[in-house]
Amino acid sequence: MADDLSERVYSGPASQLRRVEALLRDAGIASRHTRPRRREGVLCVALADGARARGCIERCPKLSGTLVSAEEAAWFRCYACGATLSEGVERCASCGADVGDPHGR
Ligand SMILES: [Zn+2]
């Protein structure tokens, strides 16, 4: 089964994304990154690899990007069906749930 690489674990500039991607590959974790919008992109792994990937990234020295916590990553998932949400959407494209301001922030 192909894993859905949709769990955000890291965001940072393109050069760092490639570094983290290689780091995770060495650890046997598949990842993909979004094309950096403006300067920053986001690196995603399978949900099951999230904790392990964050551990690897945390141990990596001199990374200038930002580790995305499990809590923050959950922000980008539909609470109803778990689909990945694009930033700023009000409705889940997958199941139609109202996800505007999902956690009352
Ligand atoms: Zn949904």
Question: Can you offer a commentary on this structure?
Answer:
- By secondary structure, the protein is of the alpha+beta class.
- The protein has 2 domains: 5-74, Hypothetical protein rpa1041 (Alpha-Beta Plaits, 2-Layer Sandwich); 77-105, no CATH class.
- The protein is 27% helix and 20% strand.
- It has helices at 14-26, 50-59, 70-74; strands spanning 5-13, 31-33, 40-46, 66-67.
- It has a 4-stranded antiparallel beta sheet.
- A hairpin with a 6-residue loop joins strand 2 and strand 3.
- It is globular.
- The N and C termini lie far apart (36 Å).
- 28% of the residues are buried.
- The model has no long low-confidence stretch (mean pLDDT 87).
- The structure holds zinc ion (ZN).
- Zinc ion binds at residues 78, 80-81, 83, 92, 94-95, 97.
- Zinc ion (ZN) is lined by residues 78, 80-81, 83, 92, 94-95, 97.
CATH fold-type name of the largest domain: Alpha-Beta Plaits
Radius of gyration over C-alpha positions, nearest whole angstrom: 14 Å
Number of helices: 3
CATH architecture of the largest domain: 2-Layer Sandwich
| Beta strand % | 15-25%
CATH homology superfamily name of the largest domain: Hypothetical protein rpa1041
Which class do the helix and strand fractions yield? alpha+beta
